[in-house]
Structure formats: structure tokens, C-alpha cells
From TrEMBL:
PIN domain span: 3-117
Top-rank taxon: Bacteria
Name assigned to this protein: Predicted nucleic acid-binding protein, contains PIN domain
InterPro entries to which the protein is assigned, alphabetical: PIN-like_dom_sf, PIN_dom
Length: 139
């Protein structure tokens, strides 16, 4: 089973139904639901997704969406090691992206799923958009 680390933008696309990005994200999450792939996220991604959901729905609805959706995911914690690595890594311009990267590495994910490939151009892990990942999974 492929272990995919999912960046926050993919969660946000799916749960906020951001067109047209939600469709391919939905296909990927349906593969996770069937057990064909394993999807992990950081706790930071859950918090960011909740923030974006609050712009669209009431707080209790946002919590309920996340409560149900997280059943498909492995939610991974952050720690001080990831913060230190991210602060000292000049390959990532964005601190949050560095945190995501080190979380994926630490927990043994095989690749990163994001819409923003440029944010992870220095990654030692393969990085895919949803379209690219679906093509790879077909093979």
C-alpha cells in the first residue's frame, strides 16, 4: 500500500469543495477509504483546514466535517525536532512547508501530495499533484 503524505491545500480543496480541485482530491480520498492507499497529514493541516472551513460553515459543522473525515487519515503530531529542522533549513522558503516535509520524512511516507509543487522542489521525497498521483497509481 502506498503511504501518501497529504499537504493541507488538498484537504482544504476537498472539504471546502473548492472547484475544480475537489474532484481529484475526492478520488484520492476514496482510494484511502477503500484501503488502496494510506493518507497521512500533520496536526497542523487539520488546524489549517478547520480555519478555512470556518469561513464557510458554523464552528460545530466544521468540527463535525473534520471529525468524520479524519477517520480516513493518519494524523501525525509535530514536535520540537521538526521545528528546529525547519528553522535551520534554507531549502524551504515557507516554514509551514518545511514542517510538513519533516513530518512526512519522520513518519516514513513515500511521497507528498500537494497542489503547489514549487513549495517542495527541494524535497527528497517524490512530490505529486493529485492528477500526477492518480496517473502513477494507475500503473
Amino acid at each position: 500500500m502506498k503511504r501518501i503524505f497529504v499537504n493541507a491545500n488538498i484537504l482544504i480543496d476537498f472539504l471546502t469543495q473548492r472547484k475544480p480541485f475537489d474532484v481529484k482530491a475526492g478520488i484520492i480520498f476514496s482510494l484511502a477509504e477503500k484501503g488502496e492507499i494510506s493518507c497521512g497529514v500533520s496536526v497542523l493541516s487539520i488546524a489549517n483546514t478547520h480555519y478555512h472551513l470556518l469561513k464557510l460553515v458554523k464552528p460545530e459543522s466544521a468540527k463535525e466535517l473534520i471529525r468524520k473525515f479524519k477517520l480516513l487519515l493518519q494524523v501525525k503530531p509535530l514536535n520540537e525536532k521538526f521545528i528546529d529542522l525547519s528553522l535551520n533549513n534554507m531549502d524551504f522558503r515557507d516554514f509551514e512547508d518545511a514542517l510538513q516535509y519533516y513530518t512526512a520524512l519522520e513518519y516514513g511516507y513515500e511521497s507528498i501530495l500537494t497542489r503547489n509543487l514549487k513549495d517542495f522542489k527541494r524535497s527528497n521525497l517524490p512530490v505529486f499533484t493529485p492528477s500526477q498521483l492518480l496517473e502513477v497509481l494507475k500503473k
